[in-house]
Write a structure and sequence with these properties.
By secondary structure, the chain is mainly beta. The protein has a single domain, classed as Pnp Oxidase, Chain A (Roll). The chain is 12% helix and 40% strand. It contains three helices and 14 strands. Strands 3-2-6-9-10-5-4 form a seven-stranded antiparallel sheet. The longest helix is centred in the N-terminal third of the chain and has 9 residues, at 55-63. The two termini are 28 Å apart.
């Protein structure tokens, strides 16, 4: 298979589409976030890349907490809006039904069937973005997305983002069992 060099700034791999929640005084604020990944199992840590110019960056630093909310495709328009407008100019809290768990400055979205509450434990500063390392303090899942007590991707119907084409995708069908199917090759 012949390959073409596409340069170094390529984002073709799918990214989860989430809504990062922070609090600005008494107002909940949400930002669409695709640059998110799990980075440690115990303690449970995740990393979120947020542009230095965003209000969300300022609020995560100030509050030391944030939430990660996993929207489904049925609220895609609201999710996209949260990525288009700044909380400096618009009150995005009115888009959703907001609730709180254990952390007072990490707003959760009721319309998102899966939400995480995180405490900020570290910041890695880069040229344009900061990488926030958050420890997951609590996770909340709607009963209807659980199978055997675990989130079921088919029921959650999470959004994915691809760049540079800037498209949203939904998750397809399960194609195999991770950490299992490859054992067939160990003969």
């Amino acid at each position: 298979m012949e390959k073409t060099n596409l340069g170094s700034n390529l984002f073709i791999y799918p990214m989860p589409v989430t809504l990062l929640g922070t609090k600005n005084g008494e107002i909940a604020n949400f930002m669409a976030l695709g640059w998110l990944t799990r980075v440690n199992a115990n303690p449970p840590l995740l990393a979120a890349g947020v542009n230095k110019a965003h209000l969300t960056n300022e609020l995560v630093r100030k509050n030391g907490t944030f939430s990660i909310n996993y929207p489904s495709a049925n609220i895609m328009e609201k999710v996209d809006y949260c990525g288009l407008v700044s909380g400096r100019k618009k009150d995005k809290s009115q888009l959703f039904k907001v609730e709180y768990g254990e952390l007072e400055t990490a707003p959760l979205i009721k319309e998102c069937a899966l939400s995480l509450e995180c405490e900020l434990v570290d910041i890695y500063e880069m040229a344009t973005n900061d990488l926030f390392i958050g420890q997951i303090i609590a996770s909340h899942a709607a009963e209807e997305i659980l199978t055997d007590g675990k989130p079921d991707m088919g029921k959650l119907n999470p959004l994915l983002l691809t760049m540079p084409d800037n498209h949203y995708w939904s998750v397809g069908e399960k194609v195999g069992e991770a950490w299992s199917i490859g054992r067939k090759l160990d003969k």
